[in-house]
Amino acid sequence: DAGVTQSPTHLIKTRGQQVTLRCSPKSGHDTVSWYQQALGQGPQFIFQYYEEEERQRGNFPDRFSGHQFPNYSSELNVNALLLGDSALYLCASSLMGGEETQYFGPGTRLLVL
Amino acid sequence: GQQLNQSPQSMFIQEGEDVSMNCTSSSIFNTWLWYKQDPGEGPVLLIALYKAGELTSNGRLTAQFGITRKDSFLNISASIPSDVGIYFCAGRPHPRVQGAQKLVFGQGTRLTINP
């Protein structure tokens, strides 16, 4: 039973570029949440997807967008990258309403130069 | 938005010692969670707490949901080398609080153990 997988593991971009990160949830899970974890900080909630729709959103600008596919996998897109977007981006999957038992992936480390 | 203040930020202890860390908030929470994150990995859930006053153990780990619903603590007894890592508290605010459905994380406690 595969856990949550994310790709790529590492990514280097330059300011102004766009990036797409991918996540496959744990088998049987239908809800995907994305978090940004800056160095030395706890994860910060970006948004959550369920039934291919954004259900909740944290305090992140519209440059951050996402998508969920019929197979429950998800993408996080960030446009017009800023230096401050450098962070570990974590994906977590769960069953809707069961976010307390969400499982995290290993993350994608994004470096913006 | 809601913030969780986690302390201490870091701990340096000897193997075998007990560890205690806590998390506080200015607003009430309905759920408290404790996670551990190892290098290169995502956080892993250790303990979940759902009721004020609840005390829950998971092996050598014990966590409590504070009576005021504004705090929680995690204790680790008889620490061993594999306890090294970063521990995060997280909470789900009371529904009356704006954005209550979002999970809020503390800043983490980095635990280092000297053998």
Give a description of the structure.
- The complex is a heterodimer of chains A (113) and B (115).
- In chain A, β9 and β10 (103-104) form a beta hairpin.
- With 113 residues, chain A is mostly beta strands.
- Chain A has strands at residues 5-7, 10-13, 19-24, 31-37, 44-50, 53-57, 64-68, 74-78, 87-94, 103-104, 108-112.
- Chain A is built from no helices and eleven strands.
- With 115 residues, chain B is mainly beta.
- In chain B, the strands form two sheets. In chain B, strands 2, 4, 5, 9, 10 and 11 form a six-stranded mixed sheet that branches. Chain B has a five-stranded antiparallel sheet with strand order 1-3-8-7-6, with no helix packed on it.
- At the A-B interface, β10 of A face β5, β9 and β10 of B.
Q: What string, H for helix and E for strand, traces the elements of chain B in order?
A: EEEEEEEEEEE
Mean pLDDT of chain A: 94
End-to-end gap of chain B? 40 Å
Q: Tell me the Rg of chain B in angstroms.
A: 14 Å
**In percent, how helical is the residue content of chain A?**
under 10%
Q: Measured on Cα atoms, how large is the radius of gyration of chain A?
A: 13 Å
Taken from the alpha-carbon principal axes, the silhouette of chain A is globular
Chain pair with largest interface: A-B, 23 and 25 residues
- The total of beta strands of chain B comes to 11
Question: What multimeric state do the chains show?
Answer: heterodimer
Condensed summary:
Chain A is mostly beta strands and 113 residues long.
Supply database-style keywords.
heterodimer; A: 113 residues; mainly beta; seven-stranded mixed beta sheet; globular; B: 0% helix
